[in-house]
Design goal:
CATH architecture of the largest domain: 2-Layer Sandwich
Distance between the termini: 5 Å
CATH class of the largest domain: Alpha Beta
Shape: globular
Bound molecules: adenosine-5'-triphosphate
Radius of gyration: 19 Å
Structural class: alpha+beta
Largest sheet: 7 strands, mixed
Number of strands: 13
Order of helices and strands: EEEHEHHHEEEHEEHHEEHEE
Strand content: 25-35%
Helix content: 25-40%
Number of domains: 2
């Protein structure tokens, strides 16, 4: 059996640069992984097929679940019969812009390689991940990185320190596809890349992360701006919506500061029903930060 910890991610800033014929968009974004994990246990099953158990009853257990789809495609790539039992404990809020489904998919790829005792060629692994979703390649080796292309061309950012975050999960969903469509309808594309790569450095995040999707999401959901403003007024060094939202992040000096703000703003300055999570992201130099595959 293998146990895999599948981390969440934040997108700090997201610029849409162009629209592609396949419906995806060329973007530029900064990814950071978080110490907030889904937990997967995977083992060989005597019954053929992919048998998923999940503690979140709202999630599908068939091929609509990215963990199942990843297991089917990884088995094919490894040349083994798909016969696996997967137990998935969801800890990452679903449809929050925190990448939970994509991370689960990457965890299954890595877990099945370990169980099968075969490493896929790195190009084949990257292609498999990309076919499962634009964010999946990031989770094969999660570290602070600039994402270009559809988010799959990754360039690690050196010298980023460990950072402390307060996440505000707002109580509504935003469809990633619709968010991109409405933003790209109004933007004049193509645009040139920005200096988003300079957002993170040895001193942590600086400047104001621009998120094209936030600009449009705020129109339908003023709570996003309300949460962002509350975090900035409470001393966040940077704040914004992560990716396609609706999670809003604030960067604080340390986890104590983030916890103190969480206690102050919950139920007072945040929209009703908002859930707060304090988490940290590992710096560029961390190779062993809690994420990964363990064989049992
Ligand atoms: P991203 O930031 O990559 O756009 P997200 O964090 O906003 O993703 P997810 O939590 O990955 O969103 O889920 C989005 C949708 O995918 C959900 O509506 C859910 O039904 C579906 N889904 C499929 N498999 C999973 C999974 N293993 N975990 C969570 N959601 C899943």
């Amino acid at each position: 059996m293998v146990k895999v910890l599948a981390p969440a991610k934040l997108n700090l800033g997201l610029r849409i640069l162009d629209r592609r014929p396949d419906g995806y968009h060329e973007i530029e974004t900064v990814f950071v992984p978080l110490r907030l994990f889904d937990e997967l246990e995977i083992e060989a099953s005597p019954e053929p097929g992919i048998h998923l158990e999940c503690d979140d009853p709202a999630l599908p257990l068939d091929g609509r679940n990215l963990a199942v789809r990843a297991a089917e495609r990884t088995s094919a790539a490894l040349g083994v019969e798909p016969a696996w039992a997967i137990r998935l404990r969801k800890r990452i809020p679903v449809a929050a812009g925190l990448g939970g489904g994509s991370s689960d998919a990457a965890a299954v790829i890595l877990g099945l390689e370990e169980l099968a005792g075969t490493a896929l060629d790195s190009r084949v692994r990257a292609e498999l991940a990309r076919g499962l979703g634009a964010d999946v390649p990031f989770f094969l080796d999660p570290r602070p990185a600039v994402g270009r292309g559809v988010g799959d061309r990754l360039e690690p950012i050196p010298d980023v320190p460990e950072l402390s975050w307060l996440l505000v999960r707002l109580p509504f969903g935003i469809s990633t596809a619709e968010a991109y469509q409405s933003a790209s309808r109004e933007l004049t594309l193509p645009r040139r890349g920005s200096s988003i790569a300079a957002l993170l450095g040895p001193s942590g995040a600086v400047g104001s992360p621009e998120n094209d999707l936030e600009t449009f999401a705020v129109r339908g959901h003023p709570e996003i701006e309300q949460a962002r403003r509350a975090l900035l007024e409470e001393g966040a060094r940077a704040a914004g919506m992560s990716g396609s939202g609706p999670t809003v992040y604030g960067l604080f000096d340390d986890t104590e500061a983030a916890r103190a703000v969480a206690a102050r703003v919950t139920g007072a300055r945040l929209p009703e029903g908002a859930e707060v999570i304090v988490s940290t992201s590992p710096g560029s130099g961390f190779s062993d930060w809690g994420w990964g595959v363990a064989k049992w």
